[in-house]
Here is the input.
Amino acid sequence: MWDRFRIFWKRLTSQEYLPRYSRLAGEIDSYEPQLERRINDTKSQGANWAVQAKELVNKSKELLDKFKIDEAWKVFHTAKRLEYFGMKDEERLAIAKSLVEEVAKLNEWRREAILSLLGKDKAAIITAPSPETLIMAADLKDEHYNNQYYKNKLSRNLFRLLFNLLFIAIAGIVVYTCCITRKYGSDLPADLPHSSYLVGVLLFGFLGSITSAILFTRYLSGSSRITEIGSSQVISISKIFVGAAFSIFIYLLLKSSIAGSIKLFAFTIDGPLDYFAIAFVSGYSERLASKAINAIVGKDKEVGEKK
Here is the structure.
């Protein structure tokens, strides 16, 4: 029983059991004997490619121990590409044909670049490419997967941030609801103090804008450009605060004397819950704020034309 607890605790506290860590660690451990055998079979102990490949494998292990997984993968891929210098012609030919088969997974410009280096299809590759050519083609392929992993990492970090904000917003609403129901009862009066209204409107506005930001980020995560995903954190945070500002604006507009001269909704607003629901919609979509602004500007234009 105690041994099981120690294993469970180690899985929780040790990086060795994280999928990202263990996957690369397994790749390195399985590749080291393969590389050593290649060096011995080709009698390349003093060759530049063999020395550099072993140094890069050791460097990859050092980076992995520091949990720099992105850097470790890049160094490890470079070490594997250097092995092409120790391969026979038939081995390089087989790898070239497999790369041509794999290009269907890559984006267009990388696919065309690899095909221009190796050949348009497997049948067109009849001679083994040089190690330098094969390294260039493999580098393009590895760069694609490195970028894909980096995009996934950016999206994951952004989703984590947004879900943390969502949890905080929901927790704030729960606390706020408990406080006002304890003070005013379960049937909230329509004449709540403005401070109570503002806090509720702000919380529900944040809830709506965070929900909108999560959906926006889910759509953006399908983008093929790292710069767009990288900048989406700033965009998403700005959408959250803009949405909350819109919810405050709509609330102040509905409480002002202007509300009687413009028609924003086809229903009557009777109590706090109506304002909170409107605040959520205001935070979720800017169309309601745009409609309100256009209604005010339209009234001003009509007054100007009459004058």
